[in-house]
Known about the structure:
- Keywords: Activator, ATP-binding, Cytoplasm, DNA-binding, Nitrogen fixation, Nucleotide-binding, Phosphoprotein, Repressor, Transcription, Transcription regulation, Two-component regulatory system.
- It is found in: Cytoplasm.
- GO terms for molecular function: ATP binding; phosphorelay response regulator activity; sequence-specific DNA binding.
- InterPro entries: AAA+_ATPase (IPR003593), AAA_lid_NorR (IPR058031), CheY-like_superfamily (IPR011006), Homeodomain-like_sf (IPR009057), HTH_Fis (IPR002197), P-loop_NTPase (IPR027417), Sig_transdc_resp-reg_receiver (IPR001789), Sigma_54_int (IPR002078).
- Residues 140-368 form the Sigma-54 factor interaction domain.
- There is one protein chain.
- The protein is of the alpha/beta class.
- The relative contact order is 0.07.
- The protein is globular, with a radius of gyration of 28 Å.
- The chain contains 21 helices and 14 strands.
- Helix 4 (87-95) links the parallel strand 4 (77-82) and strand 5 (100-103).
- The protein is 46% helix and 12% strand.
- The strands form four sheets. The chain has a five-stranded parallel beta sheet with strand order 2-1-3-4-5, sandwiched between helices. The protein has a five-stranded parallel beta sheet with strand order 7-8-11-6-12.
- It has four domains: 5-120, Rossmann fold (3-Layer(aba) Sandwich), CATH 3.40.50.2300; 145-307, P-loop containing nucleotide triphosphate hydrolases (Rossmann fold), CATH 3.40.50.300; 311-389, Helicase, Ruva Protein, domain 3; 427-481, Homeodomain-like (Arc Repressor Mutant, subunit A).
Amino acid sequence: MSLPTILVADDDRSIRTVLSQALGRGGYQVRTTAQASTLWQWVEEGEGDLVITDVVMPDENGLDLIPRIRRIRPDLRVVVMSAQSTLMTAVKATQRGAFEYLPKPFDLKEVLAVVARALATPATPVQPLAPPQPDEQMSLIGRSVVMQDIYRIIARLTTSDLTVMINGESGTGKELVARALHDYGRRRAGPFVAVNMAAIPRNLIESELFGHERGAFAGATTRVAGRFEQAAGGTLFLDEIGDMPPEAQTRLLRVLQDGEFTTVGGTTAIRANVRIIAATHRDLRQAIRAGTFREDLYYRLNVVPMRLPPLRERVEDIPLLARHFLNENAEGAGSVRVLDDEAMARLQAYRWPGNVRELENLMRRITALHPQESIGADIIAAELAEASMAAPGEGAGGSAAETLAEAVERHLRRFLASGQDGMPLSDIYDKVIAEVERPLITMTLAATRGNQIRAAAMLGLNRNTLRKKIRDLDIPVVRGGA
């Protein structure tokens, strides 16, 4: 039985040598070339069991070869390599029929694993999509290993309508990923409709999603189409799905199960012709344990889970992102700002509780407020300090994306756990309320510079009640405030 033959096309001699040696040691026969035309000739002659090709070659783009190879030899798998390492490259490679996309520089162990998997996987028919039209300068930027994994997942998902659950901290780009899945997918000719569950009053969520009929409730003077109808033929992005109230969760589950819905006050079933992409910054498994999120709905939504890494887990992308945002804002500023090496090091040492959105806002601020073209570490340090004072970051094990309720829950869990170590727990309610009241009143008084009338109004308390709490909680008050 002859050994499988791998055809390698790359105009970089060192790449050809490294791959030839690694594949040879792996038990494969290898033929290498620097020309796309030679590779095509070998394919036409029936040579090879697998193709590994670069994208940019002297005589032809490797991506253009893939559909031609698939037409004459549909059983021949093609693996694409590229130093461009962008989302667009991964999408084009996948949609033209590549088995896998490998960004350069690649890990040889990964190459061998991909080759073994490709040779063991039966070939399947591929229906190439029309070339994607969106702007190639995508907002998803990064060449880190974790971002390359995201690009490959997105590329694979553009050829299907599978439901996707995106999990990530605030500011990591969850909506950008959802838009990429839509813009490069099979439903891109249809609408992309985004709805933020956390921004809709609980009593309006069902009407917002499914629409309502005239007279369905007080104030419903006309029929209104919901987001499911508006997104027909396209993609419905349900952001902050963890904030959906239980009754709406039940209706959404029914829609996902039955593939149809009725408007509020309606009786006629409407087909749900949408692709669902959900996103959350919450731990939904924890929400399931707490009884605030339905487990059966979670599994319906979590068909393909995607985790977006926080910026602190891909610091190597920070220079690329920073330059991109500076260039974006250069037109209004008259010139492009440049970060010196120390400034860039300062950015990479920062924790970025607000993630990419925080970095983008910082670059906008620098462009607007600092006229000098070269930005040093002193400016970065001052701007980050100012931002930290305005909006404190993680601290004490928390998260910038953490809500007040989540912070309270986290501290209560720690407090209650202390009772399991022999510490007596009694009068918990009064103790917890006091723990919350003291900093709340102290900070409100600080915000009003000690003005108790204004503080009482802000807190919604009677002035005498506030005075009693100040006395009981032994809160120092600075008199003579504005």
